[in-house]
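User: I'm writing a tutorial on reading structure tokens. Could you give me a worked example: one chain, its sequence, then its tokens, then a sentence or two explaining what the tokens reveal?
Assistant: Sure. Here is the example chain.
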Amino acid sequence: MNTSVYKRKLTPDLARGFMLLFIALAHANQFIFSPEREITLTDKLTVFIRQVVIDGRAFPLFAILFGYGLHQVWKGQERKGISWKDTKKIFRRRGSWMLVIGFFHAALFLADIIGVYGFIALLFASFFLRLSNRNMIIIAVFFLILVGVFAPAMPRGFDALTMEVTNSATIEDPIEASMTRMFDWLFYTPILSHQVIPGVLMGILVARFQLIDNPQSHKSLLIKTASLGLLLSTVGGVPMALMSSLYWTSYNEVWEVTAKSLHTITGYAGGVGWTALIGLLVIKLEGNSGSFTQAIAALGQRSLSFYLFQSIVFVFLLAPYAGGLGGHIGQLESDLIAVFVWVLSIFVANLMHQRSIRGPFEAFLRNRSAIKN
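And here are its predicted structure tokens:
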């Protein structure tokens, strides 16, 4: 029996497990390649709800948890007596291998995030982790301003109904599709990093103050954070949701730019709000978490492996050169497939947990980045 499992904090693992549902919902629709299909009322409603709740809200939660993880790795190395010099080597090695994984993942799916985290771990992790709280907040605010300025050029999910953002999904030759995405990934990865850095910095601060390590001690703050964060996220997401779902079509360029920036900026409030809400859920479940909760936590412990697993299943089911379902479904159907893949992931992860099997990519990164004596 792997006793280390029981030493882990439930909140971050549960958050990672739920995060994979959000990621699946944000990704599955990008495999749709039926542009001539009539847009239905169901399509419009699905896109509206997803824009308010998921799109642009999932990746900040992912980034917060990544920043939290960086801090935990650092402190874990400190407890083992490993020097800061060697710890920096671990981050550089891990970042380099995450870039490699992300590059090959892009063969399946362009909007890879693993490479972005690898890029940040390689170049910035050791710098960010040693910042004072004040300087970290200043840098986070600076990057949030950058995000607001550049967000209109790369909004998340805005073109879901017109499918303009998923052009590589229509390529029927798997080699051509993979080469196209991998080439685009080389530019996409460093450019997207500016949107991820604020969340990473937030995650490091969350870890420093142990907000989700000991949620019971911060219950009042978590309630306020969850309420305000999710409120801001919802309100800020409505204008772009109305546009992208084609309920609001008479807007001008100024309104469009404003809505896209507002949607992206308030997504960070959503990421923080979801993190706080899951912390509150853990307080409710503390000492009484059932098998389903433990199964989601098991998924969270293997989040990297199952993030990649999702893309493999989506390609198998939806890609034109594989299952081909992406040419015959609408927005709601893609979300139902996303939920199915998430539930399947929970089932497989729980089986792995019961057999004390680590996630293969987590084990790979740990082995490749470890300091050899």
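What the tokens reveal: The chain is about 70% helix and 0% strand. Confidence is low (pLDDT under 50) at residues 1-6.
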